[in-house]
Design goal:
The protein is mostly helical. The chain is built from eleven helices and four strands; from the N terminus they run ααααααααββαααββ.
Length: 269
Protein backbone atom coordinates (compact mmCIF):
# COMPACT_ATOMS: atom_id res chain seq x y z
CA UNK A 1 0.00 0.00 0.00
CA UNK A 2 1.61 3.20 -1.17
CA UNK A 3 1.30 6.37 0.85
CA UNK A 4 -1.69 8.35 -0.30
CA UNK A 5 -3.51 5.28 -1.63
CA UNK A 6 -7.24 5.96 -2.03
CA UNK A 7 -6.80 9.55 -0.89
CA UNK A 8 -8.91 10.67 -3.84
CA UNK A 9 -11.78 10.08 -1.46
CA UNK A 10 -11.32 13.77 -0.60
CA UNK A 11 -11.33 15.27 -4.07
CA UNK A 12 -13.22 18.52 -4.25
CA UNK A 13 -16.86 17.94 -4.99
CA UNK A 14 -16.85 14.36 -3.72
CA UNK A 15 -20.17 13.54 -2.14
CA UNK A 16 -19.24 10.17 -0.71
CA UNK A 17 -20.69 9.64 2.73
CA UNK A 18 -18.61 9.70 5.87
CA UNK A 19 -17.87 6.14 6.84
CA UNK A 20 -18.97 5.03 10.29
CA UNK A 21 -15.74 4.91 12.27
CA UNK A 22 -16.56 6.29 15.68
CA UNK A 23 -18.85 4.60 18.16
CA UNK A 24 -19.32 7.49 20.55
CA UNK A 25 -23.10 7.72 20.45
CA UNK A 26 -23.40 5.61 23.59
CA UNK A 27 -21.39 3.82 26.26
CA UNK A 28 -21.10 0.13 25.42
CA UNK A 29 -18.88 -1.14 28.28
CA UNK A 30 -17.60 -4.01 26.11
CA UNK A 31 -14.03 -3.92 27.37
CA UNK A 32 -14.47 -6.47 30.16
CA UNK A 33 -12.73 -9.50 28.63
CA UNK A 34 -9.15 -8.67 27.66
CA UNK A 35 -6.91 -5.63 27.38
CA UNK A 36 -5.11 -4.48 24.24
CA UNK A 37 -4.87 -7.91 22.55
CA UNK A 38 -2.13 -6.47 20.34
CA UNK A 39 -0.34 -9.73 19.57
CA UNK A 40 -3.58 -11.57 18.79
CA UNK A 41 -4.88 -8.77 16.56
CA UNK A 42 -1.55 -8.76 14.76
CA UNK A 43 -1.90 -12.49 14.09
CA UNK A 44 -5.41 -12.01 12.69
CA UNK A 45 -4.37 -9.11 10.46
CA UNK A 46 -1.32 -11.07 9.32
CA UNK A 47 -3.60 -13.90 8.15
CA UNK A 48 -5.77 -11.40 6.30
CA UNK A 49 -2.65 -9.94 4.69
CA UNK A 50 -1.72 -13.42 3.44
CA UNK A 51 -4.99 -13.49 1.52
CA UNK A 52 -7.44 -15.21 3.86
CA UNK A 53 -10.85 -13.64 4.27
CA UNK A 54 -12.42 -12.92 7.65
CA UNK A 55 -14.53 -16.10 7.69
CA UNK A 56 -11.49 -18.26 6.94
CA UNK A 57 -9.56 -16.65 9.78
CA UNK A 58 -12.50 -17.15 12.15
CA UNK A 59 -12.78 -20.80 11.14
CA UNK A 60 -9.05 -21.41 11.62
CA UNK A 61 -9.32 -19.79 15.05
CA UNK A 62 -12.35 -21.90 16.00
CA UNK A 63 -10.55 -25.07 14.87
CA UNK A 64 -7.44 -24.22 16.86
CA UNK A 65 -5.20 -23.71 13.85
CA UNK A 66 -4.53 -20.22 15.18
CA UNK A 67 -3.79 -19.77 18.91
CA UNK A 68 -4.10 -23.51 19.54
CA UNK A 69 -2.82 -23.13 23.12
CA UNK A 70 -5.78 -20.92 24.01
CA UNK A 71 -9.08 -22.34 25.25
CA UNK A 72 -11.88 -22.32 22.68
CA UNK A 73 -13.91 -19.78 24.67
CA UNK A 74 -10.89 -17.48 24.87
CA UNK A 75 -10.24 -17.76 21.15
CA UNK A 76 -13.84 -16.87 20.33
CA UNK A 77 -13.81 -13.98 22.84
CA UNK A 78 -10.69 -12.62 21.15
CA UNK A 79 -12.34 -12.87 17.74
CA UNK A 80 -15.34 -10.94 19.06
CA UNK A 81 -13.03 -8.19 20.32
CA UNK A 82 -11.15 -8.10 17.02
CA UNK A 83 -14.36 -7.99 14.98
CA UNK A 84 -15.94 -5.27 17.11
CA UNK A 85 -12.87 -3.04 17.28
CA UNK A 86 -11.56 -3.35 13.76
CA UNK A 87 -13.55 -5.51 11.33
CA UNK A 88 -16.92 -3.82 11.74
CA UNK A 89 -15.71 -0.55 10.23
CA UNK A 90 -17.09 0.00 6.73
CA UNK A 91 -14.23 2.06 5.31
CA UNK A 92 -12.17 -0.22 3.01
CA UNK A 93 -9.22 2.21 3.06
CA UNK A 94 -8.95 1.87 6.84
CA UNK A 95 -9.30 -1.91 6.61
CA UNK A 96 -6.49 -2.11 4.06
CA UNK A 97 -4.27 0.14 6.17
CA UNK A 98 -4.80 -1.98 9.29
CA UNK A 99 -4.08 -5.17 7.38
CA UNK A 100 -0.97 -3.62 5.84
CA UNK A 101 0.36 -2.43 9.20
CA UNK A 102 0.77 -6.07 10.28
CA UNK A 103 3.91 -6.26 8.11
CA UNK A 104 5.79 -4.18 10.69
CA UNK A 105 5.32 -6.69 13.51
CA UNK A 106 3.39 -6.83 16.80
CA UNK A 107 5.74 -4.50 18.68
CA UNK A 108 6.02 -1.82 16.01
CA UNK A 109 4.71 1.72 16.58
CA UNK A 110 3.22 1.53 13.08
CA UNK A 111 0.84 -1.24 14.15
CA UNK A 112 0.34 -0.31 17.79
CA UNK A 113 -0.49 3.36 17.22
CA UNK A 114 -3.00 2.45 14.51
CA UNK A 115 -4.66 -0.19 16.70
CA UNK A 116 -4.79 2.34 19.52
CA UNK A 117 -6.38 5.02 17.34
CA UNK A 118 -9.23 2.83 16.12
CA UNK A 119 -9.73 1.18 19.50
CA UNK A 120 -10.21 4.47 21.28
CA UNK A 121 -12.33 6.01 18.53
CA UNK A 122 -14.73 3.10 19.04
CA UNK A 123 -14.77 2.99 22.84
CA UNK A 124 -16.57 5.97 24.35
CA UNK A 125 -15.50 5.30 27.94
CA UNK A 126 -11.80 4.96 27.06
CA UNK A 127 -11.93 8.01 24.77
CA UNK A 128 -13.49 10.28 27.39
CA UNK A 129 -11.29 8.95 30.18
CA UNK A 130 -8.20 9.70 28.06
CA UNK A 131 -9.28 13.06 26.63
CA UNK A 132 -10.86 14.45 29.80
CA UNK A 133 -9.48 12.84 32.97
CA UNK A 134 -6.01 11.73 31.81
CA UNK A 135 -5.52 14.92 29.79
CA UNK A 136 -6.38 17.07 32.82
CA UNK A 137 -3.84 15.25 34.98
CA UNK A 138 -1.21 15.52 32.25
CA UNK A 139 -1.68 19.27 31.80
CA UNK A 140 -1.52 19.71 35.58
CA UNK A 141 1.77 17.76 35.59
CA UNK A 142 0.21 15.04 37.72
CA UNK A 143 1.33 11.89 35.93
CA UNK A 144 0.30 9.23 38.46
CA UNK A 145 -2.56 7.05 37.22
CA UNK A 146 -4.31 3.86 38.27
CA UNK A 147 -7.53 1.91 38.35
CA UNK A 148 -8.80 4.12 41.16
CA UNK A 149 -8.70 7.10 38.78
CA UNK A 150 -10.82 5.26 36.23
CA UNK A 151 -13.15 4.21 39.03
CA UNK A 152 -13.65 7.84 40.10
CA UNK A 153 -14.27 8.80 36.48
CA UNK A 154 -16.83 6.01 36.12
CA UNK A 155 -18.64 7.08 39.30
CA UNK A 156 -18.79 10.65 38.00
CA UNK A 157 -20.31 9.42 34.73
CA UNK A 158 -22.85 7.34 36.63
CA UNK A 159 -23.94 10.40 38.57
CA UNK A 160 -24.25 12.54 35.45
CA UNK A 161 -25.96 10.06 33.11
CA UNK A 162 -28.95 8.04 34.23
CA UNK A 163 -28.99 6.25 30.87
CA UNK A 164 -25.68 4.46 31.42
CA UNK A 165 -25.98 0.68 30.90
CA UNK A 166 -26.39 -1.19 34.15
CA UNK A 167 -23.60 -3.65 34.93
CA UNK A 168 -22.74 -5.70 37.99
CA UNK A 169 -20.08 -4.62 40.45
CA UNK A 170 -17.91 -7.50 39.23
CA UNK A 171 -18.23 -6.43 35.59
CA UNK A 172 -17.59 -2.82 36.55
CA UNK A 173 -14.37 -3.83 38.28
CA UNK A 174 -13.23 -5.75 35.19
CA UNK A 175 -14.18 -2.84 32.94
CA UNK A 176 -12.19 -0.34 35.00
CA UNK A 177 -9.11 -2.56 35.27
CA UNK A 178 -9.19 -3.49 31.59
CA UNK A 179 -9.64 0.09 30.45
CA UNK A 180 -6.47 1.13 32.27
CA UNK A 181 -4.64 -2.03 31.18
CA UNK A 182 -5.64 -1.47 27.56
CA UNK A 183 -4.35 2.10 27.66
CA UNK A 184 -1.17 0.70 29.17
CA UNK A 185 -0.80 -1.83 26.35
CA UNK A 186 -1.07 1.04 23.87
CA UNK A 187 1.47 3.20 25.70
CA UNK A 188 -0.65 5.95 27.27
CA UNK A 189 0.10 4.44 30.68
CA UNK A 190 3.46 2.97 31.66
CA UNK A 191 4.92 1.22 34.69
CA UNK A 192 3.95 -1.83 36.72
CA UNK A 193 3.90 -1.10 40.44
CA UNK A 194 3.63 2.66 39.97
CA UNK A 195 1.73 3.56 36.82
CA UNK A 196 2.35 6.88 35.14
CA UNK A 197 0.89 8.78 32.21
CA UNK A 198 3.12 8.82 29.13
CA UNK A 199 2.89 9.92 25.55
CA UNK A 200 2.23 6.84 23.41
CA UNK A 201 4.38 6.23 20.32
CA UNK A 202 2.72 7.71 17.23
CA UNK A 203 4.02 7.48 13.67
CA UNK A 204 3.09 10.13 11.08
CA UNK A 205 0.91 7.67 9.17
CA UNK A 206 -1.35 7.26 12.19
CA UNK A 207 -1.63 11.04 12.55
CA UNK A 208 -2.60 11.14 8.87
CA UNK A 209 -5.42 8.69 9.62
CA UNK A 210 -6.84 11.04 12.22
CA UNK A 211 -6.51 14.06 9.92
CA UNK A 212 -8.33 12.12 7.22
CA UNK A 213 -11.15 11.17 9.55
CA UNK A 214 -11.60 14.71 10.87
CA UNK A 215 -11.60 16.00 7.31
CA UNK A 216 -14.26 13.46 6.36
CA UNK A 217 -16.31 14.63 9.31
CA UNK A 218 -16.32 18.12 7.84
CA UNK A 219 -13.91 19.95 10.14
CA UNK A 220 -12.05 23.01 8.88
CA UNK A 221 -8.28 23.31 9.11
CA UNK A 222 -8.47 25.33 12.30
CA UNK A 223 -10.98 22.91 13.82
CA UNK A 224 -8.73 19.96 12.99
CA UNK A 225 -5.80 21.67 14.64
CA UNK A 226 -7.82 22.24 17.81
CA UNK A 227 -9.74 18.96 17.83
CA UNK A 228 -10.07 17.23 21.18
CA UNK A 229 -9.15 13.93 19.53
CA UNK A 230 -5.43 14.77 19.57
CA UNK A 231 -5.49 14.49 23.34
CA UNK A 232 -5.43 10.69 22.97
CA UNK A 233 -1.75 11.22 22.09
CA UNK A 234 -1.37 13.93 24.78
CA UNK A 235 -0.76 16.52 22.06
CA UNK A 236 -1.63 20.18 22.39
CA UNK A 237 -2.19 22.52 19.45
CA UNK A 238 1.54 23.18 19.00
CA UNK A 239 2.28 19.45 18.91
CA UNK A 240 -0.44 18.96 16.30
CA UNK A 241 0.89 21.85 14.22
CA UNK A 242 4.39 20.33 14.22
CA UNK A 243 2.98 17.02 13.02
CA UNK A 244 0.93 18.78 10.32
CA UNK A 245 4.13 20.47 9.13
CA UNK A 246 5.84 17.09 8.96
CA UNK A 247 2.94 15.55 7.04
CA UNK A 248 3.04 18.49 4.65
CA UNK A 249 6.77 18.04 4.11
CA UNK A 250 6.10 14.39 3.30
CA UNK A 251 3.43 15.61 0.86
CA UNK A 252 0.61 13.65 2.53
CA UNK A 253 -1.31 16.87 3.15
CA UNK A 254 -1.04 20.56 2.31
CA UNK A 255 -0.71 22.64 5.48
CA UNK A 256 -0.13 26.35 5.97
CA UNK A 257 -0.59 28.38 9.14
CA UNK A 258 -0.26 32.13 9.43
CA UNK A 259 -1.46 33.57 12.72
CA UNK A 260 -5.05 32.46 13.18
CA UNK A 261 -5.44 31.47 9.53
CA UNK A 262 -5.07 27.74 8.87
CA UNK A 263 -5.19 26.08 5.48
CA UNK A 264 -5.20 22.29 5.63
CA UNK A 265 -6.03 20.11 2.66
CA UNK A 266 -5.58 16.47 1.80
CA UNK A 267 -3.03 16.44 -0.94
CA UNK A 268 -4.06 14.56 -4.09
CA UNK A 269 -1.28 13.05 -6.19
Amino acid sequence: MALGENVNLHKKGSNRKVFAIRQHDQYSFRNTIRAGCIHECWLFFKELRKGSNAEQVRRALADGVILRNYAFSTRMALWKIFRTRYLNMTDPWVQNELIGSSQYGPESPELISLLYLYFILRDKLAFEFATDYVWAKWTNQDCSIGSEDCSRFFIKLSQEFDSLPKITAKSRGKLIRNTVSTLQDFGLVTGAKHRTISRPPVVPRTAFHLVRLLKLEGLSGKEILRAKDWRIFLWDEQDVSRMMTKLSQEKWIRYEKSGSIVNLEIRIE
